[in-house]
Amino acid sequence: MTAAAPRGELVASAGLLFTAMAWGTMVPLTSVLLEDLPPFVIAASRYTLALAVLACIIAARERSPILPMGLPWGRILLLGGGGIGSFATCYTFGIGYSGPIAAAAILATQPVIAVLMDWLVTRRRIGGRLAIAVALAVSGGLLVAFGGSDSQAAAAHGGEVLLVIALFCWTWYSMKAQAWLAPLGIGQLRITLVSSGAAALALWLIYAVTAALGVQPLPAAFPGAGHLVMLLWLAVGPTAIAIFTWNYGTGRLGITAASLFLNLSPVFAALLGMALGAKPSWAELVGGAIALGGVIFLQLGAAPRRSRS
User: What is the mean pLDDT of residues 291-305?
Assistant: First the structure.
């Protein structure tokens, strides 16, 4: 292993920490936006605004065309529409039809789903250290999710199944984006750009059809300043930048190891609550420490391999 490889893994880990932080803000902000905006408007707006951000970043960093020639647009549409689009649809409706604590608990199972799908696709054996790290991350995430919650907040409301489907869709996208697009050498920024663009197209088309049929309502009014700021953050932080750092981390560390970082999202959400004056429960503090311990445990296992390289 070259000296650049360990640095790349450290950069990937730092990026995944940002992803966990940014995605930790998605559930509370989406819940607020759903009070006044249709779900498809929220989801489609996120990815549309993210396109402009990603295109500007690529244009500022590189002199080459933003979209290279010869891209496999059929697979890109499948990744964006079937992967990200299905994820965003199920995720947004799932949050709207589930309790916030139940939603957080479902999202904490992402590493388990990643392990399952990775095994189904590759038949790769799950090592003992990785299994322990997954167990720690999931148990810590569940403890944070249920720590200090009341029965009303923790109750299921029917959207939990949609959230599970969303996690499978996202895991499928994460694996196939690296298998189909990364070998083409177009870079993770462009992978994020083209797949987000396909997702935005699919979501706006679905919204147009469902709104025309009367299934989805039109927005009652133009979003206010506060909601626009929330949408802008969801587009720039959790979508444009966090999906890029997620794709980079997945490409470097693999889907299962990258998924462990997602269990830090409720920890960052709890830290945000503390900054706003909320007092965390002992379960949230202990659960956060356990989830972080799972990530550190896996990283320490990679350290001996780096030192021998």
Answer: 64
